[in-house]
Sequence to fold (402 residues):
Amino acid sequence: MIKRQLEKQLLRAAGQYPVVTVTGPRQSGKTTLIKNAFPTYRYVSLEDPDRRREAIEDPRDFLDRYNRNVIFDEAQKAPELFSYIQTLIDEQDTPGRFILSGSQNFLLSKAISQSLAGRCAVLHLLPFSLSELEKKPPLRFDALLTPEYTHTLLQTPPNPNSHPPPIHQGFYPRIHDKNLNSTEWLSYYFQTYLERDVRELLNVGDLEAFGRFIRLCAGRTGQLLNLSSLGNDCGISYKTANRWLSVLEASFLVLRLRPYHKNFNKRLIKSPKLYFLDTGLLCWLLNIHTEEQLALHHARGAIFESLVVSECQKYLFNTGSSAQIYFWRESNGLEIDLLIESSAGIMPIEIKSGKTIASDFFKNLNRWQKNIGQTNHPGALIYSGKDLYKRKNTLVIPSATL
Fold:
């Protein structure tokens, strides 16, 4: 079994809060993580119709039986429980009393904010990270400005046995645990998502239109988000497009990366950029099923960007980092793919899918440094080559280091 990096944060939270909730997309490994982290806890799946009916029809009796050291899986299925759980923990505020999990962030967030605010820690589990699959420490995105860490990173020899999984397979645990055909599994996953989550969250009558919407989003990965254009191409209104995209975000399928615009006077592009959080699902939506197809595909660069952005987001979730991520783009065309704002400052990162370093890879980093008046400000370049080194003030990082 592959150890999940979020486990440390999960155990820490359970030692401080009476309720801990783990959310994330379906099949990201939430149940496996929680069961292994709390092997002595009783496990109740509210996906089970009998247990769900008991919880909804008589929550007091249900919680008399399950009132401590218990895991409630798919907790959003019985929102009536949350108010009763609040009463119990107000009477006895014991850390780690209830562990909740669920895959519908909309419903869980609403229930938590109404009943458990201040009493509940909320953690997010995405599919495997590259470092989890490779069983190695992750790249510490929020420490790239720290000289001690970068020195250690540069001294770390490459692993000759490192063989990262193909990007088109993605990182959902079941694909790797069971050595499944990723194309087939992702097809089933997508269909199940439409038929279950989308119907529950949106009551969408035309699932074909929603499926077409997701595919149009896939085609816009790494691009500035234009909801009016997206809606027009799908035959829906701006309001509907925004609502549907919010559901994809709440399902942890996509991420809207916001532009950074603090403390600078230049006129900036204010629209967010759109990324998918699993490159396997992204490739499947784009009909990319082999490494050969990906190597020749026009969206290869955008897919590689999605990989890096999603790995950064996984790291922040898994470690509980307070760092924030953005992109930077001026109206004159200057763009930095990823900015990480942490307590140490702002780290600009350029992302290139090429395996060979070219001098123009550093152009935007140099322009950004001049723009802020700090030509010696550290930067990073992440690419798909093999060598890790420092070029002037820029760390050159191979994707295998993620």
